[in-house]
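Handout, section 4.2: multi-component inputs.
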Amino acid sequence: MPDQASDRTVDTADGVPGEVPPAVRVEGLWKRFGEQIAVAGVDLALPAGRFIGLVGPNGAGKTTTLSMVTGLLRPDQGRIEVAGHDVWRDPVEVKARIGVLPEGLRLFERLSGGELLSYTGRLRGLPGEEVDTRAAQLLDVLDLAGARHKLVVDYSTGMRKKIGLAAALLHNPQVLFLDEPFEGVDPVSAQTIRGVLERYTASGATVVFSSHVMELVESLCDWVAVMAAGRIRAHGPLAEVRGSARSLQDAFLELVGANGRDTGDALDWLGGGAR
Ligand SMILES: Nc1ncnc2c1ncn2[C@@H]1O[C@H](COP(=O)(O)OP(=O)(O)OP(=O)(O)O)[C@@H](O)[C@H]1O
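Output:
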């Protein structure tokens, strides 16, 4: 059972020999789609036990990177380790230790929420009784208990995110990867998800999540990586990446070179007064 190690004390991304390895180590990662270079030589070490935000503008390469890191997309080049295991040479070891909530998650639509969790837990090799206990608790905490018999196809966008999150957490993974977990989620549910994730990282587990919402990243994460045009522009503890900027949003705009960008004279036809 890949339950979490009790003492993860590493405080730096690189760690100390003999101690817990970084949650994720990426070296020389590349991915092209035809002429399009989506990921252009990413090197990254994400420390264990942190709440980590991967941020970047549209098309920066976040989803492509997370897909390669979680073993869903084969890199053209590069090496990826999760919790000390090579993602592409040792996929079974890695998959037992990770939970993934991908973008555009496909779920088994004709199962109810409860059935989906039972099925996922058994696929993960958990004993039936344990699955039932954990599933009931997760459904309860995520405010889905009333919808446990409803088919997933009839779930709302936010409910789908929450059941996807429950399925990703059921086996108590060491590292949880979430692609835009708060998109389409109402503020109450967002607060609930946040509480679950904070509790999870407080116990030593690692969350890596991608988002465009800087306020959210700033309030949740203690470590961030900023990506633009397929490369990592900055990474490190939140305060370090923010530097002297007023907010992470300002630092981000500076880093991705978007500060001061406006529409100029373009769109001068737009608006009620210009007829
Ligand atoms: N399957 C694919 N085929 C062709 N191009 C792709 C494919 N997947 C991604 N790309 C391209 O790779 C680049 C990076 O895309 P990616 O989805 O990783 O960015 P992102 O940072 O997740 O963006 P967003 O924040 O908009 O979701 C984009 O230019 C995108 O068009």
